[in-house]
């Protein structure tokens, strides 16, 4: 029997909906990075949920709908600094911290984000 994915272990779709809802409440209110999120909040949350599902080992939902994630290329039109990445990670850390999962799972989940956040830095 194969080990359950991180997606499954954190609670699947329900957990990701909770995470993305809280995360984007924080992001849209953040004085530094809210400028990066000008389009429809619900659309942004849905794309993030689809991406995270795939990123954490769940079904390939993002790719099925939007094609290969190409996350760096998709973010290139936006000026993203190291300070932006840190702010993004602070919001994600707070959102992950509010999930009703063990500290060990919270740590494992959050540890997936710093490398990706800093990979998006383009200025």
TrEMBL record:
Family: Belongs to the truncated hemoglobin family. Group II subfamily.
Source organism phylogeny: Bacteria, Pseudomonadati, Bacteroidota, Cytophagia, Cytophagales
PANTHER family hit by this protein: TWO-ON-TWO HEMOGLOBIN-3
Superkingdom classification of source: Bacteria
Molecular function GO terms recorded: heme binding; metal ion binding; oxygen binding; oxygen carrier activity
Matching SUPFAM superfamilies: Globin-like
Name the UniProt record assigns to this protein: Hemoglobin
Keyword Mitochondrion: no
InterPro entries, per database record: GlbO/GLB3-like, Globin-like_sf, Globin/Proto, Hemoglobin_trunc
Keywords: Heme, Iron, Metal-binding, Transport
